[in-house]
Amino acid sequence: MIEVRNLRKSFGAHKILEGVTFKVESGESVVIIGRSGGGKSVLLKHLIGLLSPDSGSVLIDSENLCTLNERQLIRVRSKFGMLFQGAALFDSLSVAENIGFVLRKQKGLTDGEIRNKISEVLEMVELPGTENKKPSELSGGMRKRVGLARAIIYKPQIVLYDEPTTGLDPVVSDSIDKLILRVRDQLKVTTVVVTHDMRSARLLGQRILMLHEGKIYFSGTPEEIFNSTDPVMHRFVNGISIPKEHYF
Ligand SMILES: Nc1ncnc2c1ncn2[C@@H]1O[C@H](COP(=O)(O)OP(=O)(O)OP(=O)(O)O)[C@@H](O)[C@H]1O
Question: Where in the numbering of this chain does the ABC transporter domain appear (predicted)?
Fold first, then answer.
């Protein structure tokens, strides 16, 4: 479903991705871990064509994003739902408007059909009846759920999550993780999660990829990652900070 080949990206002299290669199969859930500032969000943005690489390629369903024009890119992007860091809701819009504004552009849907779709996804994220609330009235965990509802209303084939549990307490994080699993299983979506929350990574990843020094340094099942004796992996999963000089 997703194939990344030798992806390289720099911003000025700052090399972020230095030859990233991996595949995600259809229906698989993959977690990308790595230190803060290591390029995880930059990598996610390449998957959806929001950033273009200096070299290398991203293939979605065998289509190379780098060769597509803007209209073709929009078609490929419609396969994706994305939950951004901080949920990225519009504060002046209600929950229903935040979730439904993209649907309004779709021809052929009546107001009643849009309302039904919105209430269906709000049920799915366990926020029924919150259509008329404003994001400012919601807790951090609820805002994430609204962001997730917006990400899945199109019935995407792939959902990307950028730090879905950052800033949430462990109980709320746990409920968001369970929701991500439910969405994966019910909608049969391919799932890619970027996180530095190791508890989430263990729960969500059928496979975990470690992005380190601009490359996929390690790839394995949660068990392989957590039992690894590799010193970089061991220090990362146990939350021991690695001296910066190790990276550059
Ligand atoms: N558009 C941009 N222009 C210049 N530099 C950028 C841009 N986007 C990201 N960067 C830089 O790329 C580096 C990697 O950022 P990125 O957000 O991908 O890290 P991350 O691994 O997701 O970190 P975190 O876990 O803290 O979110 C950072 O140094 C960031 O400042």
Answer: 2-238
Q: What's the pLDDT score for residue 101?
A: 80
157-169: average pLDDT: 90
Report the separation in Å between the CA atom of 37 and the middle of ligand 1, taken as the mean of its atom positions. Answer: 5
Structural domains in the chain, sorted by start: 26-51+78-238 (3.40.50.300)
Looking at residue 191, its pLDDT comes to: 96
pLDDT averaged over every residue in the chain: 89
Distance 223 CA to ligand 1 centre (A): 28
Beta pairing, strands 29-33 & 63-64:
unpaired
CA distance 50 to 57: 13
Instruction: Give the residue whose CA is nearest to atom 2 of ligand 1.
Output: 11
Apex 87 CA angle, 83 and 91, nearest 5: 140
Distance 39 CA to ligand 1 centre (A): 5
pLDDT for position 121: 92
Q: Are 29 and 1 in contact (CB under 8 A)?
A: no
